[in-house]
Amino acid sequence: MSDSDIGKIEKSNVRATDVVKFAIFSLIGALLFLFPIKYGNSFNIPVGIGIDFVKGYIHEYTKYIMLIFVVINAILTTINYFFKPNFIQENKWLNKVLVATPLYLVSRIIGAIVIVMVFFQLGPEAVISGSTGGTMLDLTMSLVSVLLVISYTMPLITDFGIMEFSGVLIRSLVKPLFTVPGRSAVDLMTSWFGASNAAVLLTERQYNTGYYSGREAAVIMTNFSLVSIPFCYIVATIIGIENLFTPFYLTIVVVGFILAAIIPRIPPLNKVTEDYNKETGKVINETVPQGKSKFAYAVETASLRAKDTTFSDVIKQGNDMFFSVIFGLAPIILSWGTISLILVEFTPVFNILAYPFGFYLDILGVEGAFELSPATLVGFADMFIPGLILAPSKIIETKFILGILSLVQIIYLTEVGVIIINSKVPIGFKELLFVFLERTVIAIPLIVLMTKLLL
């Protein structure tokens, strides 16, 4: 930082202690979320390692926790929907988490039925199978570990200035390319090095607090929430092309960036409202005032953000995120996630729906196009399924192409999709389906071209 920058910061209402607070806590947040370290046979961010650590200790017990949470949630939501008792209506927090539309009420009831059936292994195999209800129960169990770590560490990224700092510095690059604020680069990096659901939760938090408009949040959630590098390697291993991981991941990055430049500029995303959360209004301002350098203004805005954040705020917001997501999200994963997987595993629905993509792949010269075409669509239900379909195939090039496709489609209902639908961001199931199909149609020829160039 130059002497002139220091002088400009000192002339503002920022104290040295605010700058130090921003620097220390943001550095900790950056180290936790953005810098991968060697962990086992791969690399992961410290927050991801922390999630694995917590999961190792509590995972076997979380099925009991989820059983209690989901069943009580369904019972209390039903009671509140029909009878509106005072003990819920007069409690601000209970009233917030237990108010549900008819669709969400049904979702919570179905979720409770599913978890009871899977837990006690009662009912038809289509529901309690390890590939349907069992998979969704395991996913909700993992969600507990993710939330226990993410809920209380995320403020280091969101509330102590690093997003303001990066937003001011790179706005001139990110805004024209992807039509979103510069701070969204932090969401992308969190996703790349950590987990896509963590990045979506981060974006939701930024929308709720007035830092993204509805359109910006929708764009970031559906274009920047790429799966993490470690998971990409896992998929490459599952489908048997780990020896090609370098061109595999290079293609993911190139195609992902091209899609992120195109998709926000076409419907439905370009039609999403630019309004900010009505409860907060617009808080963000990344435009540098006249007379200030970009760096000085970045430090100033970041320090002012850090100044307003207290430890009690972090704990309160962490508690709110943890319980809101557990009560709101887990039943949806269990209900609609299980239904989606039943359609994949026990019906020909996706085989029929994917038939046009067989023609599309065939026209582009992809071998085994019709045989493997279901892998183009089943990712909408869950990110793991395409890899399982591709694994038995002996056609390396096709596995390479469709494996990459499954990782740039991004919108997996059982993972990030339900978080988006359950959030206040103004984008619903129909829009997510359109974006998924757009990403699929545009990505396929790009991936085929990259494959021909690299393999």
From TrEMBL:
InterPro entries: Gate_dom. The chain crosses the membrane at residues 20-37, 64-83, 103-123, 135-157, 217-241, 248-266, 321-344, 372-391, 400-421, 433-454. Keywords: Membrane, Transmembrane, Transmembrane helix. It comes from Senegalia massiliensis. This is YjiH family protein. The keyword Transport does not apply. Residues 142-241 form the Nucleoside transporter/FeoB GTPase Gate domain. Pfam families: Gate.
